[in-house]
Amino acid sequence: MNGRSHSILTIIALLYCITVTAEAQSRSTKAFRIKTAPVRMYEIRPSDVTYQLWEGFQLMRNANAGDAPSQHELSLRYLTGRGFSADTARAAVWMKRAADQEYILALFNYGIYLNNGWGVDWDPFEAYRYFVRSAERNMREGQYVLGVMYTDNLIVARNYQTAYDWVYRSAHQGYQPARDLLTELEKRGITGSSAVRKDSVKGNQRTPLPLQQALTSNQVIQPVLLDFDEDTTVQADDMTLLQELFNEGNEELRTTLGISRILTDSLQRDSTGFALIVRAAEVGNPEAMTIVARCYEKGVGVKKDKLAAAVHYIRAIRLDSRRAPALLWRLINEKNMVQNIQQRAARKEPTAQYVISSLAAFRFINSITEEQALQFLVRSSEQSFIPALLDMGNAYSQGQWVKQDRKKAVEYWRKAASLGNAEGSVRVAVSQVFDGTITDAEHSFGLLQGYSTQGSVLAQTALGYCYERGVTVPIDESKAVYYYRNASQRGSQSAMNALARMYDDRRPSDPRFTVEPE
User: Fold this and answer.
1) Predicted pLDDT at 459
2) Contacts from 445-448 at CB under 8 Å and sequence distance 24+?
3) How many domains does the chain have?
4) CA–CA separation, 476 vs 470, rounded Å?
5) Roughly how many angstroms between the first and final C-alpha of the chain, as a whole number?
6) Using an 8 Å Cβ cutoff, are 107 and 133 in contact?
7) Do 172 and 237 belong together in one domain?
8) What is d(CA 266, CA 34) in angstroms, rounded to the nearest whole number?
9) Cα–Cα distance between 27 and 415 in angstroms, integer?
10) Is residue 44 within 8 Å of 51, Cβ to Cβ?
11) Is the dihedral of CA 148, 150, 153, 159 positive or negative?
């Protein structure tokens, strides 16, 4: 996979809004409280309602008088509902007023508002203009965001040298996400201009903005460089697979297990954790499927079973997993692995029949024809092997090996669901959304929301479609983009195509935003 469909910028709220709740440390930051500011914030007791009201009055008065830091602060308070009723529209108005005065934090944060559709219409192109202004003023977060934008071919044409140059500037101001991305770019052989390197050394001597103090790991823009070919010479270790599972938005697992615990304890010692990951895999979470496959391959927490490992790798690949193809390729290239699978398939074992059919579909082997591969898949499904039922549904849905027939596809998915398979239920709900055949809108939408929290890329993509087209919910472009981003960051081709379409529909005539399909 390559090109536009394999590169995605996922911008999440990178706001400095935690400043208003970070107590003494953030109250002294000069990023918000310059010496000449007419209002100084002191430690106040939550019970001192009179003082808080007076403080809010003073803040509003100074914002109305045109003080940019006060306007910025007021915007964040409206956004977070601290001291004022939460009102994103008012938050956006005040943030823009501060940005219009070239207040650097407001330039960046108003870009965030625009990019996420908070209180304003979603407009990633106007957001880009504000990020440029913050980056040109040496704001390291703005430089990082701008660098990332040059990797995805959505807003501006992809240019890795330009991306590197901006990320380099940010990294040399000590911004950790930029340092991480810089390492990844250099690992891939991407470098920038020597002039930028020289200038950044000087820039590194400046006092960096203390914005990072308020950031948490899940609030940072995290590009996924899907455009690069998978490096099959260096396999991801088990810790990397676990980290990716939690980085990809599985809220239920993260909440239930606690990220620190699951990343330090062995799955073999934590049967509850493993069971939750298995459950996430069953709803269509490709990262969870890859971990389960790895556990079967190595015998961690379960009895070693390389055929079961292959099944889970295959299912992960069907959901556009980035890691599974290389891991499956390595597995089947073990001595006598394919031969053993073929022998078991000849004995009509449904698991082996499913695996050998899938390997042929992926063109990992060429020892059987497409017709033979279909026969193996049909026979496996006739024995009610759930992965085969799901793939028979996929085949009829996509017209692969058989004539396209969406009704028949749903029949197979319903049968999988009737056998207790959650992914089958997800696929039925998703097909109803895209085909316009929903009979119980509230139930179907709630089902998709529940499975989305468990990391189902199918559910996330369907929710994006619902918000984009107004299916069961009012049209909301910002929410559509949110769900499409989450799914496409994880490798979903259909979500990436939908996201690209939304950007293209809004693309201005400005030559800066000309992007050629790849």
Assistant:
1) 95
2) 445/472, 445/473
3) 2
4) 8
5) 11
6) yes
7) no
8) 49
9) 59
10) yes
11) negative
303 touches 472 (CB < 8 A): no
Q: Who contacts 187 (Cβ-Cβ below 8 Å, separation ≥6)?
A: none
**117 and 258 both lie in a single domain:** no
- The C-alpha atoms of residue 507 and residue 517 are separated, in whole angstroms, by 13
pLDDT at 322: 87
Count the alpha carbons within 13 Å of 346 in the hemisphere toward its beta carbon.
7
Could you tell me the two tokens for 430?
């998703």
According to DSSP, residue 235 is labeled P
Sign of the CA dihedral 199, 200, 206, 212? positive
Could you tell me the two tokens for 426? Answer: 């997800």
Is 182 inside any structural domain?
Answer: yes
Q: Identify whether 205 is part of a domain.
A: yes
Secondary structure (3-state) at 183: helix
Nearest to 320 by CA among 12, 6, 3, 10: 6
Show which of 154, 188, 219 is a domain's final residue.
219
Structure tokens at 514: 């000309």
Contacts of 443 (CB under 8 A, 6+ apart): none
Which CATH number fits the domain that encloses residue 160? 1.25.40.10
Give me the half-sphere count of Cα atoms (radius 13 Å) on the Cβ side of residue 145: 32
Question: Residue 382 in contact with residue 353, Cβ under 8 Å?
Answer: no
User: Which tens digit of pLDDT belongs to each residue from 344-373?
Assistant: 999 999 999 999 999 999 999 999 999 999
- Quick one: pLDDT at residue 252? 54
Nearest to 387 by CA among 300, 294, 282, 278: 282
Cα separation values, 284 from 253, 455, 493, Å? 14, 7, 15
Q: What is the reported pTM?
A: 0.78
Which tokens hold the place of 74? Answer: 């007021």
Q: Residues of the chain whose pLDDT is less than 50?
A: 1-47, 201-234, 257-268
Amino acid at 416: A
Inter-CA distances, 241 with 227, 246, 283, 289, 292, Å: 19, 9, 18, 10, 10
Rounded distance, CA 6 to CA 397, Å? Answer: 23
Same domain, yes or no: 159 and 235: no
Give the type of residue at 497: N
Are the C-beta atoms of residues 489 and 248 closer than 8 Å to each other?
A: yes
Query: In a 3-state reduction of DSSP, which class is residue 115?
Result: helix
Under 8 Å between Cβ of 174 and 200:
no
Cα–Cα distance, 36 to 48 (Å, whole number):
26
Instruction: Dump the DSSP string for 256-317.
Output: HH-HHHHTTS-GGG-HHHHHHHHHHHHTT-HHHHHHHHHHHHHTSSS---HHHHHHHHHHHH
Q: Which domain holds residue 178?
A: 4-219
